[in-house]
Amino acid sequence: MIKKLTAYIGEYKKDTWMSPVSVTLEVILEVLLPVLMASVIDHGVEAGDMKYVIRMGAVMLVVAMLSLMAGTMSGVFAARASMGFGRNLRKAMYDNIQDFAFHNIDKFSTAGLVTRMTTDVTNIQNAFQMIIRMLVRAPIMMISALFMCVTISPRLSLIFLAALVFLGCVVAFIVTRAFPIFDELFKGYDRLNASVQENLTGIRVVKAYVREHFENEKFCKATGNLKDLNVRAEKLVVMNQPVMQFTVYTCILLISWFGAKMIVLDGIMTTGQLMSLFTYTMQILMSLMMISMVFVMVTMARSSAERIVEVLDEQSTLTNPEHPLYEVPDGSIIFDHVNFSYSDDEDKCVLQDINIQIHAGETIGIIGGTGSSKSTLVQLIPRLYDVLDGSVRVGGHDVREYDIESLRNEVSMVLQKNVLFSGTILENLRWGNKEATEEECRHACELAQAHEF
After folding, report:
1. Which residue of 75, 123, 279, 298 could cross-link 34, Cys pair, CB 3.0 to 4.6 Å?
2. Band of the pLDDT at 333, cuts 50, 70, 90?
3. Distances from the Cα of 248 to the Cα of 51, 166, 245, 256, 425, angstroms
4. HSE of 316, CA atoms in CB hemisphere, 13 A
């Protein structure tokens, strides 16, 4: 799954690599600051050497500015890489969806596809930015600060070791418990989007049958379910902050107590070294907090990643033959012992053993009650679906032998539910022929009895 997604980083690989490089430089410079501060206290303040304090202060200022610049560049590179990665993912999903057959779209639902292209991609985008920045910064910062602590006092460093083990267990507990909840949460978003989509699409029907109260209850139920799932997830995630603060303050108290004894009683530590230990304590524990935040975000993104890969891996159930036909000889249509099911289940066929022969130029009417599969029958002619058994032949050839685009260009079809796309009426009329003149579009409106409105 990871290999599949990272392939869409594409032209943003340079930014993806430059962000960790910049953040590594930032961390190295930040780790030097406490060492310089300890030197200022031990050799400048306590010795009363003001020139040394000014000189080292200037060095600290330069180091801090360089660290700021490196951090800023890291943020720019990470933002550019993550936004580009999200764009490429959306484009890849959209391109693949354009090739979907109706059967593929029915599998995911329109609301589910919208959620995957918006909410899920945003989660992946945010997680990717945190990974190439925070997940690089935090471990390097933690390891560097730990190394400096061990250099200053190996004995006091054991405090950090105990803190690391404790926080690692807490993060593992949160991640393992939160993942199933986030997985269900995104499915809840699909249900909510479906509810809103149905309501807005059928708003005239809702008002005509005075069903506003029922739709409100359905919507409230969907949002209530999302609220409950969010609360369950947040109950786990919010544990991270108080546990982290407890660990930070405990480490500071222990270092203060034992460090003071080592200065006053043993004389094996300087005041500057103790001050630098406090700074390294905050750096280590802040790094752990960053890592825990990344793990929580990655846990959310994992569910989104699985849903996105499902769309990217989905192959259209309708494909062109190896050597397709590009011309339709005539308009004759033959249904030869056709069986069709939306679920590929022979026991649930909506059309069974259909045999029809229509000659070129002939006009026929198909009459039947609501739900008797009249539209389904017609949709098999331009191969919007494939038959389960038998064959549909147009111009004497099975529709599966034709190039799909060539076949559909020869079939004029008015669907039950028509949609006006954004743009002008003229732009909508040119969907059938983008080179059509305005006069041809007017003539088409007259033929369709639509020129008056």
Report:
1. 279
2. very high
3. 35, 12, 5, 12, 64
4. 17
Per-residue model confidence as pLDDT tens digits over 348-388: 788 888 899 999 888 888 888 777 888 888 888 988 888 88
Pick the CATH number of 333-447 from 3.40.50.300, 3.40.190.10, 3.40.430.10, 3.40.50.620: 3.40.50.300
Which residue has tokens 């061990």?
A: 150
How is 373-426 classified by DSSP, letter by letter?
Answer: SHHHHHHTTTTSS--SEEEEEETTEEGGGB-HHHHHHT-----SS--PPSS-HH
Per-residue tokens: 292: 């825990």
Class for domain 2-313, per CATH? mainly alpha
DSSP-derived 3-state class of residue 278: helix
Number of H helices, E strands in the chain: 15, 4
Confidence at residue 73, expressed as pLDDT on a 0 to 100 scale: 92
What's the one-letter identity of residue 13?
K
Q: Is 385 left (phi over 0), alpha (psi -120 to 50) or beta?
A: beta
In sequence order, what DSSP letters do the residues of 179-213 get, joined into one string?
HHHHHHHHHHHHHHHHHHHHHHHTHHHHHHTT-HH
Domain boundary assignment for the chain? 2-313, 333-447
Judge whether 22 and 71 are in contact, CB under 8 Å: yes
Backbone angles phi, psi at 119, to 5 degrees: -60, -45
